[in-house]
Amino acid sequence: MRWSCPTGVDLDEVEPQDQPAPYPLLVTIGASDDDDVWLLNCEDLAVITITGDPTYGQDFARYLAAELACSPWSREVTVDCVGIAAEIAPMNPQRVRYHDAGPDLTAEVLTDAVDVAHMVTTSALKSGDLGQARAAAELAALSAPHEEIPRLDLAAVAAAEGHAREAQRILREDVCDRSDDGEAPMELPERTESIIASHDWLTRGEAAS
After folding, report:
1. Domain count, the chain
2. Same domain as 43, residue 136
3. Which structural domain range is residue 61 located in?
4. Residue 203 to residue 184: CA distance in whole angstroms
């Protein structure tokens, strides 16, 4: 994609300023010999692998974190830096969080990712963007297969798509984990209960029935 905009154009003519940024993870990765800026939308890539000289690679990772910390279109972004870019976090603590590598880190980051995906799914459902809602829920389910919240989101998406039976199957088999006696578990995790309570199409009784 090639995009350009004259520097003299009034920003109000480009896009209403109260709209969310269309590419919040857009970053600069270099420039051509003619000084054309190269941009990369990180959101288009599931994984970005930085190869080559380790020192240059770490410098580039810090640069990306710094750009996301400062870019006005990245104001809704949260960046989790694991074992690198500790000096970037103070630039914008609301966006950038630094973590020392440790045994509990993976679970913590996955929980955060699931919660963000849940917010994306919920927002997309409210706006009627079922494609984005399903994509966010499916990505979370693949990233954290043992988490129940992505399954709840998949059930919500299925219900919004008109697939009521599929939604109930997900709730019955993947969330409530009903045993052979046909009874739902006595207690669901607190986070699961809070998500169930937030969906007006589902009550606790329906989940257990």
Report:
1. 2
2. no
3. 11-99
4. 14
